[in-house]
Amino acid sequence: GVEVGPQPQGVVRADTLDKMRKIVKHGLDFVQLFNEGREFPPCTIEVFKIMEKVDYPRNKNDEIIAIIHPKLQDQDWQPLNNGDPLFLTLDGEVIAYKGDCTVYPAFINEAAYYEKKQAFVKTVKMKLTAKHIRSSAF
After folding, report:
1. Which residues form the AstE/AspA barrel-sandwich hybrid domain (predicted)?
2. 52 labelled catalytic
3. Which of 63, 95, 108, 137 is the most buried (most CB within 10 A)?
């Protein structure tokens, strides 16, 4: 599967559709070249591994009491360091990130995740290395 976004539910965006088409085309091109016997050299790519989901701050009645801080909004995949603002309470108090390492938040303030009690997910940046590959048919 391919998920390209973000975009609101029920909205079709031309730029997002174009990105999806390009990704699918690259995937199909890879399959064709692999099936034709092309050898692909080893490579290393950077990825983000989801570590945990983070909920909105809530009161004892399970009601959300803070919103995503403006400095965090629209900052998916950007570094978040200890002390950086996360949430802003309805009375103006800033709730900062308290962590011992840099994380990379994603799916920040996505409408589809409110019901799942998820303000964002914390990810860590990693590198994956793949060995060379070639179809065994050749």
Report:
1. 44-123
2. no
3. 108
